[in-house]
Design brief:
Layout (H helix, E strand, L loop, with lengths): L4 H5 L1 H12 L14 E6 L7 E5 L5 E3 L13 H12 L4 H8 L3 H16 L9 E8 L8 H7 L23 E7 L4 E5 L5 H11 L5 E5 L13 E5 L21 H14 L10 H14 L4 H12 L3 H8 L1
Helix pairs in contact: 3-5, 4-5, 5-9
Length: 320
C-alpha cells in the first residue's frame, strides 16, 4: 500500500491509514481476532481515535492497541515524521533538529521503533543461499565509563590496531549474513566466528538440504555434516567464482553477500558510530528495509504496516 506523508500528518487520515494497514479485511479484536466489534465512542484527547469493544470477549481496544504506538506521549505528527525520517535513514541528530526534540527523546523514539521491528519473526531461507561474515565498527557509544574501563584509545587511533578478524573486544563485532539468491537476507551479530556460534543460527534459518555457498574459511567446514550441500569459493587461491557444472555460469561465489556488506556499511555511516548494545536493532532494521525492496517515501507504508501489527511481547505477556 502506497502511503502519502501528508495523509499521515492529519489525525483523521492517520488513524484511517493505520486501520487499513492493520486490518485490511475488516476491524478485528487484537485478543481473539473476532470481527464482531462495536464502536464505543472516541478518545477525549484524540477525537479521531475510535474506540471499539469486542462482542465475544468484551475487550476494549483501538487502532493502536498492542502496538508500539500505544501510550506514547509525543503528538502523532512528531511520531509520524520520526518514522518518515527513519525510512530515509536520517541520523538521530538530524531528526532532533528537524522535530525540535532533545537527543534523549529522539533516541527513545527511534530505539522503540527499531525494537518493534526487531521482535518480528525471522524469515526462512532455502534453494541456494550465500553465507558470509564481516566486521562493523561498534564500540560503547554513550558509555564513557565503559570506554575508560576497557582502556581503548580514541577513534583517531583505531586504524593503528592489530589486523585480523573483528571481535567484540576490538570494537569490531562480527556480523554473520545469510542471503537466498533472488530472495531475502538474514543477519546476526555474533560473539565470535566459530562452529558452535554459527551452528544454531544456520540451522534455525536455512532449510536442511539447501545448497550453501561460502568462502574457504574453516568455520564452514561442518556444513556438509549439518545436512547442507556445501560449495565454497577459494579466495586465497584467487578463485573468487567457479563453474562446477560446466554450463558457463560461475555459480560458486559469495558476491551477493559481499555487495550486501557494502550497502550495510553505507547505511550505518550517517549514524556516526553505534554502540554494541544497539547494533542488533540497527541490523534487524536494515534487514527488514532491505527485504522490503523499497527506499525513501515508498518504504513508509511497509514500515508502518510492520509497526502497527500486534507486538509479540504483549501477546506473550497476556498468555502467561
Amino acid at each position: 500500500m502506497q502511503v502519502n506523508i501528508t495523509h499521515l500528518i492529519d489525525d483523521v487520515q492517520f488513524f484511517q491509514t493505520v486501520r487499513e494497514l492493520r486490518w485490511p479485511e475488516g476491524i478485528a479484536c487484537p485478543s481473539c481476532a473476532s470481527q464482531y466489534v462495536i464502536k464505543r465512542g472516541c478518545d477525549d484527547a484524540e477525537p479521531a481515535r475510535q474506540h471499539y469493544t469486542c462482542h465475544d470477549g468484551d475487550t476494549r481496544f483501538d487502532a493502536l492497541t498492542d502496538t508500539i504506538f500505544a501510550g506514547h506521549h509525543q503528538p502523532l505528527k512528531v511520531s509520524v515524521w520520526c518514522r518518515y525520517c527513519m525510512g530515509l535513514n536520517v541520523s538521530n541528530e538530524h531528526i532532533g533538529h528537524a522535530l525540535a526534540l532533545n537527543g534523549s527523546e529522539v533516541q527513545q523514539m527511534t530505539a522503540q521503533r527499531r525494537g518493534g521491528i526487531e521482535k518480528k519473526p525471522t524469515v526462512t531461507l532455502s534453494n541456494a543461499v550465500e553465507c558470509d561474515e564481516a566486521s562493523v565498527i561498534a564500540g560503547h557509544k554513550g558509555q564513557p565509563e565503559v570506554i575508560k574501563s576497557t582502556g581503548r584509545q580514541g577513534r583517531r587511533r583505531r586504524l593503528q590496531g592489530k589486523s585480523g578478524r573483528g571481535t567484540i573486544e576490538k570494537a569490531r563485532p562480527p556480523v554473520f549474513g545469510m542471503r537466498q539468491r533472488g530472495g531475502q537476507v538474514v543477519i546476526h551479530r555474533l560473539a565470535n566466528v566459530r562452529h558452535k556460534t554459527i551452528a544454531p543460527v544456520i540451522k534455525d534459518t536455512i532449510v536442511a538440504g539447501t545448497r550453501v555457498y561460502t568462502d574457504e574459511y574453516r568455520m564452514y567446514a561442518r556444513l556438509q555434516s549439518w545436512a547442507y550441500d556445501h560449495q565454497s569459493a577459494h579466495h586465497g587461491r584467487g578463485a573468487c567464482a567457479r563453474d562446477d557444472d560446466g554450463d558457463g555460469v560461475c555459480a560458486v561465489h559469495v558476491h551477493t553477500m559481499e555487495g550486501f556488506w557494502s550497502l550495510l556499511r553505507s547505511w550505518l555511516c550517517p549514524h556516526r558510530g553505534i554502540s554494541q548494545e544497539q547494533l542488533p536493532l540497527y541490523l534487524r532494521c536494515f534487514e527488514c528495509v532491505h527485504n522490503v525492496r523499497k527506499r525513501g517515501k515508498a518504504l513508509l507504508g511497509a514500515l508502518i504496516a510492520l509497526l502497527v501489527s500486534s507486538d509479540p511481547g504483549i501477546q506473550e505477556e497476556r498468555s502467561l
